[in-house]
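MODEL INPUT / OUTPUT PAIR
PAIR INDEX: 1
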Amino acid sequence: MAIDGSPSAEAPGRASGGIVRRLRRLGWLRGIVLSPVVARPGFWFATACAWVWGGVLGRFRLRRSGGLVVASGLPSWAYGRGGTTVGAVYLTTDNTSARVLEHEAVHCAQWKKYGLAFIPLYLDAGRDATLNRFEVQAGLAKGGYGR
C-alpha cells in the first residue's frame, strides 16, 4: 500500500488486498483445494484447454519434451512473455531451449500440485519475477529473467 492507503503501483498483483492471504485464515479450505482429488482434475482441465488453444493456433505443431507438451509456432499474442505453461502444455512461438523447457517443467509440476488454484496463487505472488515464489522456484536464470 502507498502511504495514502491506496494500492501501490509497484505491486499490481497485490492490489486485491491479498485475497489469498485472507483465505489462508481458513486452513481447512487449503486442505480441500490442494487435495489431489480437487487439484488433479483442475490440472487436467487446464491441460486440455491449453492443448486445444495451442493446437489450433499452432496448427497442431505439438511435441513432447519430458512431461511437457510443447505447442510452438503460436502468434505472440497467444501467451505471456516468451512462453506460458498452462497445465502440462507450454505455449510459445519458438522459445524452446533446453534451459527454458527445464524452467517450464517446474511450472508444470506446480500446476499439477495446485490445479486451478495455481492461477490466483501465481497472480497473488506478483508480477515481478524476482519476487514471485513460483518463478524463483522454477529458476530465474533458466526462465530468462534477470538478463
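PAIR INDEX: 2
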Amino acid sequence: MTTMTALLAIPLIALIAIMWVFRFLMRSWVSAQVSRWIEGALYALLGTLITYTWGLFTGFPWDIEEACKLDHQQHWDRSSAGSASYFPLSNKCNAAFDLVPGYINPLVIAGVSVMVFCSGMAAYQALKRRNRVVR
C-alpha cells in the first residue's frame, strides 16, 4: 500500500465508521423517511469530499514544473504557474493543459447538488410528518 493510499484510507474508514454509528443513533431520533434523506445527504457529502481530495492530490503536486514536464510531457509556462485555484479546482501547466482532471469539478458540483437536494427533502419530510402529527 502506498503512502498516499494509506493517508486516504485511514480517514475514509473513520468517516464510514462514524456514519454507521450516526445512522443507528439517528433512527431513534427521527422517522425512517427523514433518516434516509439525511443519510443520502451524508453519503453525498462523503463522496464530494473524496472527489475534491482526489482532485487536490492529483492536481497539486509538490513540484509543478517537474510534474508538467516529466509526468505529462507538457511545456511549463511561468506566466500561468500562479493561476491555481481551489474552487473550481485548477492548476495549469500552460494555457491549454490543466493538471486537475476534467471530471473532478463536475463531480464536485453534482455531489453538492445531491447533498442540498437530500437535505431539502429531509426537511420537507420532517415538516410534513410534524404537520400530520399536530392535526
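PAIR 2 NOTE: DSSP finds four helices and two strands in the chain.
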